[in-house]
Write a structure and sequence with these properties.
Blueprint (H helix, E strand, L loop, with lengths): L7 H18 L6 E5 L14 E5 L9 E3 L13 E7 L1 H4 L3 H11 E12 L4 H7 L1 H6 L16 H10 L2 E9 L8 H6 L2 H9 L6 E8 L10 H18 L14
Parallel strand pairs: 1-2, 1-4, 2-3, 4-5
Antiparallel strand pairs: 5-7, 6-7
Length: 254
C-alpha cells in the first residue's frame, strides 16, 4: 500500500487528500487526536490538538507519536479521543466494520471521525473489478493494491448511522483515469473540473466528516462561560444606569 502511494497515480491521490484533510481538521478542537494508517499522508498537519498519535505498522516521521496497534483494538479508554482520522484505513483492514466500531468506542460525545476511501463506482473501481479482462487485453494501465476492500460511500454512511454518527461533510474527488505516467495524468487534468461539475459521484475517492451523537445526553457549558455572561450583564447595567449604586461589579449593594 505504501509503495503504491509513491507511484504517479498515488501521488496524485495523496495531493488531493492532503488538501481535504488540512481543510477538514483545521477547526476541530479538543485535546487528543489519532490517525489510523497511511504515514505518507499527514492527516493531522493543520490540527492544533496538543496530543496526537499515528497508529501504523511502518516507520513514520512526523509530529505525531507512533503506535503499533490493531485498528480494531485501540489502546485507548472509552470516550477518550476528540478526533480520529482514517485515510484508507477501512480499505486496507481485514475487518473494517470492527475498526469503525472501535473508533466509535474511543470517541467522546461530539467527537469527529474523518474518513477517506476508494469509491467502487468510479473509473478506478471499474479498473479494479475487471483486472482479468485488462490483462487479457494487454492494457498497461496500473492497478490499485490487490488487498484493498472497496467500501461504497452509501454502505459507509449506513454503518455510521447505525453507530450514531451524523454526516457533516461528504464529497468526492480525483476524476482522472488510473494512469501510470505523470505526463498522461496531467493531460487528463480537465476531468477533475468536469467531473466535479457533471458527475460528482464518480470520483475515485470519497471524503467524509461525521460527528458522534449520543441520544439523551446534554453537553454542559464550562462554568467560566456563565461567569463571563454574568459579568457582561452587570457591566451593561452600570453603563445604562445613572445610579451610583450600580457601579459596583462584585455583587455588593453597599
Amino acid at each position: 500500500m505504501q509503495d503504491w502511494f509513491e507511484s504517479p497515480a498515488g501521488l496524485y491521490l495523496l495531493a488531493w487528500e492532503q488538501q481535504q484533510f488540512e481543510l477538514g481538521v483545521a477547526d476541530i478542537f479538543g485535546y487528543h487526536a489519532l490517525q489510523l494508517g497511511l504515514p505518507a499522508l499527514d492527516a493531522l498537519a493543520t490540527n492544533r490538538m496538543p496530543h496526537r498519535w499515528l497508529a501504523t505498522t511502518e516507520e513514520a516521521p512526523g509530529t505525531a507519536a507512533v503506535l503499533r496497534t490493531d485498528y480494531a483494538a485501540l489502546p485507548f479508554p472509552e470516550a477518550s479521543l476528540d478526533l480520529v482520522v482514517l485515510p484508507h484505513a477501512l480499505d486496507s483492514h481485514c475487518d473494517p466494520h470492527a475498526t469503525l466500531r472501535e473508533v466509535a468506542r474511543v470517541l467522546v460525545p461530539g467527537g469527529r471521525v474523518v474518513i477517506s476511501g476508494f469509491n467502487p463506482v468510479s473509473l478506478w473501481g471499474l479498473r479494479q473489478r475487471h483486472e482479468h479482462l485488462c490483462r487479457r487485453l494487454n492494457l498497461g494501465t496500473p492497478r490499485l493494491p490487490p488487498q484493498l476492500d472497496f467500501i461504497g460511500s452509501r454502505r459507509l454512511r449506513d454503518w455510521l448511522h447505525l453507530l450514531d454518527f451524523e454526516i457533516e461533510i461528504g464529497h468526492y474527488g480525483c476524476y482522472r483515469p488510473l494512469l501510470g505516467s505523470e505526463p498522461w495524468l496531467k493531460r487528463w487534468s480537465w476531468m477533475d473540473r468536469a467531473g466535479a461539475r457533471w458527475w460528482p459521484f464518480f470520483g475515485a475517492v470519497y471524503f467524509l466528516v461525521a460527528v458522534k451523537r449520543v441520544h439523551g445526553m446534554r453537553l454542559l457549558e464550562p462554568a467560566w462561560k456563565k461567569i463571563g455572561a454574568k459579568s457582561a450583564a452587570t457591566a451593561t447595567l452600570a453603563r445604562r444606569s445613572g445610579d451610583n449604586r450600580m457601579h459596583m461589579t462584585n455583587g455588593n449593594n453597599e
